């Protein structure tokens, strides 16, 4: 029997201002680990680190529990808990936007981390390029005129609808156990300018 991605249950309380500024997040995660431990604890830790995505919550409390159940054991898949956490965070943004009757993208832009901000796990964001990249994508994708086209289509069609969205994502690469984050390589630089690199890393289809 092959394990699958861990299903997550999320309950949260979120505080925000009338103009969409995030104030606080109190969130509880449960994951369905199945009948054995496998990577469930590490995946939960990874999910807790990725909650918040690209947004600054001035006050944040996150609790996570990996649950043993009667189902086949779930295991590590691409993202390692990150996709579940980012999905939860983006749903919170959508819920806030719906409550305030605002464009979700405006909520996202308003609360993006800035250079030098500190994440909820204590990392100072240096070389933080997400706002610049996001603005470049907005321009290069013609997002604003395309959004107007989508709005007009939806206004004139009852049964068929269209949507367009842009969502920033922050994903950490590495192992939670620090000693695993090491490697070695041998680099040969030849007189003709060619380079040969020999290393011990392999692709395990995880895109690292």
From TrEMBL:
Keywords: 2Fe-2S, FAD, Flavoprotein, Iron, Iron-sulfur, Metal-binding, Molybdenum, Oxidoreductase
GO molecular function: 2 iron, 2 sulfur cluster binding; iron ion binding; oxidoreductase activity
Cofactor or coenzyme needed: [2Fe-2S] cluster; Mo-molybdopterin; FAD
Domain of life according to the entry: Eukaryota
tRNA processing keyword on record: no
Pfam families assigned to the protein according to its UniProt record, in alphabetical order: MoCoBD_1, MoCoBD_2
Location of the Aldehyde oxidase/xanthine dehydrogenase first molybdopterin binding domain: 1-112
Domain Aldehyde oxidase/xanthine dehydrogenase second molybdopterin binding, residue spans: 141-204
Family, as annotated: Belongs to the xanthine dehydrogenase family.
Name of the protein: Xanthine dehydrogenase
Biological source species: Rotaria magnacalcarata
